[in-house]
Design a protein that fits this description.
- This is D-AMINO PEPTIDASE, DmpA family.
- It is an enzyme of class 3 (hydrolase).
- It holds the Pfam family Peptidase_S58.
- Keywords: Aminopeptidase, Hydrolase, Protease.
- GO terms for molecular function: aminopeptidase activity.
- The two termini are 18 Å apart.
- The radius of gyration is 19 Å and the shape is globular.
- It contains 8 helices and 17 strands.
- Strands 3, 4, 9, 10, 13, 14 and 15 form a 7-stranded mixed sheet that branches.
- With 348 residues, the chain is an alpha+beta fold.
- It is 23% helix and 26% strand.
- It has helices at residues 75-81, 96-110, 143-152, 211-217, 244-252, 254-260, 302-322, 337-340, and strands spanning 29-37, 40-48, 57-68, 83-84, 88-92, 125-128, 169-170, 173-174, 176-184, 187-196, 204-205, 208-209, 231-238, 270-277, 282-283, 326-327, 333-334.
- It has one domain (22-286, 293-340): L-amino peptidase D-ALA esterase/amidase (4-Layer Sandwich).
Length: 348
Amino acid sequence: MTASTPGVPRVGCLPAGPLDSIADVAGVTVGHCTLAEGGLQTGVTVIRPHGGDPYRDKVPAAATVLNGFGKSVGLVQVDELGVLETPVALTNTFAVGAVAQAQIRAAVAANPDIGRALPTVNPLVFECNDGYLNDIQRMAVAGQHYDAALADAGPEFAQGAVGAGRGMSAFGVKGGIGSASRVAGGHCVGALVLANFGTAESLTVAGRLVGPELARRLALPDGAPEPEKGSIIMILATDAPLDARQLRRLSLRAGAGLARTGSVFGHGSGDIALAFSTAYTVPDDAARPMPALALLHETLLDPLFRAAADSVEQAILHALWHATPVQGRDGHRRAALLDVMPELRESR
């Protein structure tokens, strides 16, 4: 995907990186494994923070839980220690355990003393519920699907109804994976979202409320709007030298980008943002030297905050623009936004 995605409204005034994706942050790669057969519409998406072993060379990280209606694994330790030690995995709600186990197995394969001479490893898995399109009760995602997504990781990757985004819905239409980036203050901030949230009547595209017309075209019943039951996972990467406390502040600004699209972080929505920095790594072994670097001053964070909000909003639009129609469980179907509102292709 390049920065010239056809017809997508441009968010904000900051420049994007050359790919307009999270992979504009050097070293970050993304891979998918997609399961798409009949009622099985799901998958796994993996974000690698760098090309090495994240257990040996951890990256600083922090998360913000805007609304905690979710079943993620690993957030407690990230909150306590402020580092990632596995790639970040995205999948469906009932696949969290299988993917976490696959992460553990991969870490043990690379470091056989984990859980013995070495400390245990903290898997990190986020989820959204794709049960409208996907027969989630089949619990079809297994360890090999995580392995395949990890092996697929690269700087160029598909968006829309792929990987963990295959069965996701957003604003009453097809959701999924979206990514974007912004450059500010001499640093890059990249976002990747798993979009499975929003009510049709609330959709706002680059400041323009299009939701009421979308709801009309989807022939939704009049009256009180449906409650927001979906979720979104927002992953931010940056090359700025930030510590975990500063990264928590950055992750919070993902909520600004999310709100601009029409979300109110509803009761039944799991809205979680995680931010990590690639500027340095933290060694697993106390005998190895800790990094010595100057962190970014607090007063210089505002451009990165803007970049975080803009890249998340743009990533959500990319998820909607790249999504294709999917039919899944029991004949359930989600149309693509651009099929329902084709005029949006030219609404730049």
